[in-house]
Amino acid sequence: xxxxxxxxxxxxxxxxxxxxxxxxxxxxxxxxxxxxxxxxxxxxxxxxxxxxxxxxxxxxxxxxxxxxxxxxxxxxxxxxxxxxxxxxxxxxxxxxxxxxxxxxxxxxxxxxxxxxxxxxxxxxxxxxxxxxxxxxxxxxxxxxxxxxxxxxxxxxxxxxxxxxxxxxxxxxxxxxxxxxxxxxxxxxxxxxxxxxxxxxxxxxxxxxxxxxxxxxxxxxxxxxxxxxxxxxxxxxxxxxxxxxxxxxxxxxxxxxxxxxxxxxxxxxxxxxxxxxxxxxxxxxxxxxxxxxxxxxxxxxxxxxxxxxxxxxxxxxxxxxxxxxxxxxxxxxxxxxxxxxxxxxxxxxxxxxxxxxxxxxxxxxxxxxxxxxxxxxxxxxxxxxxxxxxxxxxxxxxxxxxxxxxxxxxxxxxxxxxxxxxxxx
Length: 424
What we know:
This protein is α/β, with parallel strands linked by helices. The chain is built from nine helices and 14 strands. It has helices at about 1-20, 190-195, 210-215, 230-240, 265-270, 310-320, 350-355, 380-400, 410-415, and strands at about 45-50, 80, 85, 100-110, 110-120, 130, 155-160, 170-175, 200-205, 255-265, 280-285, 295-300, 325-330, 415-424. The chain has a twelve-stranded mixed sheet with strand order 1-14-13-12-11-10-8-9-5-4-7-6, with helices on both faces. It has a two-stranded antiparallel ribbon with strand order 2-3.
């Protein structure tokens, strides 16, 4: 029992430290503007609360950005950053785009990776949507303890192995890193949303960090070492030269335009990736470091987070280089940017209750990360806010649109956003 308590304490420290990210970083003093519509550092920071829209505006670009469209795919295609071609997407970045979302499970080195991508229009007709089996994230000896009836199946508005839409693109890519005791589909709603709006999205089960390995470490299974930097390097290399399971993406990914997002410890994992990612989006984590490629940072936080205090997002914002934004959601917890609180079975039991009811080893010691409450802002609202903000940044930088203009109405549209800061 003492060993289990010590391990649980270690996991808690790892979650907090991993998600905190760097607390220092270059702020930069020289403004530089390019076709992305994001302007490098200015000395001004705008802070808003309540329903007041931000007053800071972005500097004019050296190329006219593409205007988004209120349609859902009908009409003339629109250009991307470097000669690419895309279907028009809704100007409201909280709305899904026109593409059906395909999904494939692929091997990237020693990683199991899920890829969500824009599929050919109509290719989903007559196909069944994917249901992810969360039991695969349990230690091998524990998976059989949860019956099909008790399982909290995770339904995805996506379809297995659809053909890629090769008539558009090349598509920017977004790499996502899950949090401590998470798994590759833990924030599924965001993955599908980004893919539907014209991005190729990849997320792995990260050895040593994902649910299976961390529960296993509490149940007598040897510890699995983490190498999150190595994992990201493998995924980047695979996107830059698609082969094997990823060969279907060859010549269809804009490898010069990469974004990264991460939740909790995953946010800490991407914090130093500014040398390769133009956009960094840590969620319930900390700040980021300056990097040669980095053009915009979006820090997402929850004011009632019981695992990583919102003050870490605030200090992370202060230390991160501009251009940067901070969005804080009122009455929301640590898992606001994931699916975990909403994963329930037919009996209404949540993920943790199911594990405990079926005596899944280690579940009781992982409960400290399960920051869910019926008093919190509903998950659907949290997801909508995160999708609105993240898509606005991703599309403005990686697709050269004017989507960042949406931040002017963020707090009017979402009164649940209690804090918004920007330095552009």
